[in-house]
Automatic annotation (TrEMBL):
SUPFAM superfamilies on file: NAD(P)-binding Rossmann-fold domains
Superkingdom of origin: Bacteria
Residue ranges occupied by any NAD-dependent epimerase/dehydratase domain in the UniProt entry: 10-277
Protein name: Epimerase
Record family assignment: Belongs to the NAD(P)-dependent epimerase/dehydratase family.
Species of origin: Candidatus Harrisonbacteria bacterium CG10_big_fil_rev_8_21_14_0_10_40_38
Length: 351
């Protein structure tokens, strides 16, 4: 179980990104040693966020130790790393792992997803190589968590005229598959398909999560919540919003997302995907108004209609994740207050 001290380390690909950092820190608090593979394309070097650790370079590795916990960092592109492993030319001898969390991907805000879809399609190769590696090394891996996305859901269910709460069974691999959101959605849909094969054909314990709009204090400002917070911190007036601002999303604080991941990995093993969402649909205009209420001023809102906005409305049907024993603990106002305070302080990330 991930929430117990485990002699085997945990592997986190993409462990230096926004989700990865929070996951690694939670794993450390649970007593797990962790291996990280990250090329730092969007991630932060561990020197920046693993404070107070003894640091030692060991060939291609950097090891951080504190209180008997060891964090091993491999700076490598996931494509090269897994290809070297598959081709039997590994640069590093890997241990057996209790859990493997596969987060590595090319991901960013709407500007990247819409603006450079072929680059984002690299995720198809990353996930394919990951699952080849995982199935060939299944005797050394106890459990796998694949991080999918709400972008895998059919976009025709997320329009202004046809908006539904997105339940897990709306993604079907037997028939009637809808069009996901750009190449990012395709990659996550394909990754889930491979996860099911890994479970059913190779006997691996695999779980998938479909996070909705995760946000948090140290998230990159290419994402809407921290971008809005930084402008609110400056008390901009008018406040700009991409599109009309009436596009809706299901916002979940990163700490709640990580707790949901632990629960899903404990309880799901057949490669199926589980939503991480609150079930509440909130517009970006509502996010601006909530931030402004916290900051105690009333800016006007200026629409930027030439900016990419994605689907009109995306929110989870959360019944399955609720039935597994998870519910969000951080309210929207509390979560946005944390993000705003972080923006106002303008400090680098600290654990």
């Amino acid at each position: 179980m991930t929430n117990d001290v485990n002699k085997k380390p945990v592997l986190v690909t993409g462990g230096c990104g926004f989700v990865g950092r929070h996951l690694v820190n939670k794993l450390i608090k649970k007593g797990n040693s962790v291996w990280i593979v990250d090329n730092l394309f969007t991630g932060w070097h561990p020197d920046k966020w693993l404070r107070g650790y003894d640091r030692k370079e060991d060939g291609n590795l950097i090891k951080y130790t504190k209180n008997g916990i060891e964090i091993t960092f491999i700076e490598a592109d996931a494509l090269d790393f897994f290809l070297d492993e598959i081709k039997s030319r590994p640069k590093i001898k890997l241990p057996a792992f209790s859990d493997v969390y596969h987060l590595a991907s090319i991901v960013g805000g709407r500007a990247l997803i819409d603006g450079d879809p072929i680059q984002v399609a690299t995720d198809l190769a990353i996930d394919s190589l990951f699952f080849v590696w995982a199935t060939r090394n299944k005797e050394k891996i106890e459990r796998v968590m694949y991080t999918s996305s709400s972008a895998a859901y059919p976009i025709h269910l997320q329009s202004e005229s046809n908006t539904v709460a997105l339940a897990e069974n709306l993604i079907r691999f037997d028939h009637g598959m809808g069009l996901p959101d750009m190449t990012y959605g395709w990659s996550k849909l394909s990754g889930e398909y491979l996860a099911r094969f890994a479970a059913k054909h190779y006997g691996m314990h695999v779980a998938c999560v479909r996070p909705f709009s995760g946000y948090g204090e140290d998230q990159d400002t290419s994402y809407p919540v921290p971008a809005i917070a930084s402008r609110i911190a400056k008390r901009e007036n008018p406040m700009t919003v991409w599109g009309t601002g009436e596009q809706g999303r299901d916002f979940v604080h990163i700490d709640d997302c990580i707790e949901a991941m632990f629960i899903v990995l404990d309880k799901i093993s057949d490669g199926s995907g589980i939503n991480i969402g609150t079930g509440k649909l909130l517009s970006f205009n509502e996010i601006i108004r909530t931030f402004a209420k916290i900051e105690k001023y009333e800016p006007s809102i200026k629409q930027l209609l030439d900016k990419p906005v994605g689907v009109q409305a995306r929110h989870a049907h959360p019944e399955k994740i609720f039935s597994l024993g998870w519910k969000p603990e951080i309210s929207l106002e509390d979560g946005l207050t944390r993000v705003l305070n972080y923006a106002k302080e303008n400090k680098t990330f600290e654990v």
